[in-house]
Amino acid sequence: VAPGSETGVAPSPKQLSGQRRIGLMEGGVVVVETVVVVVLVVVVDKVVVVVVDVVVVVVNVVVVNVAVVSCICIAGPLVGMVQSVVVVVAGVIGARVFAADVQPGSSVQPRPAFV
């Protein structure tokens, strides 16, 4: 069961950040990842109303993409952060596109919202 789905409330930034931290430490983007997860949760809370299970899957996909983009952006932390925010926005928009195809509790992993 996805975190927070028992109450119907989106998981807190701290919960999501803790789940992603171990995998992303290997990519060296822990700081970027933490900022992005907080931004994503705020955006999802205020704009996109989806089932919490779907939101968690979307976070998984977006955070993975953020890790890839951040590793490529070696020009500086500011560039990486801007790219990460763009990734989050793209991910939230993409959530509306494929949310209907993902049922709550499903093990199906949706494709990333962009390449």
Automatic annotation (TrEMBL):
Membrane-spanning ranges: 22-44, 50-74, 81-99
Protein name as catalogued: Uncharacterized protein
Domain of life of the organism encoding this protein: Eukaryota
Statement: the UniProt record of this protein carries the keyword Transmembrane: yes
Alphabetic keyword roster: Membrane, Transmembrane, Transmembrane helix
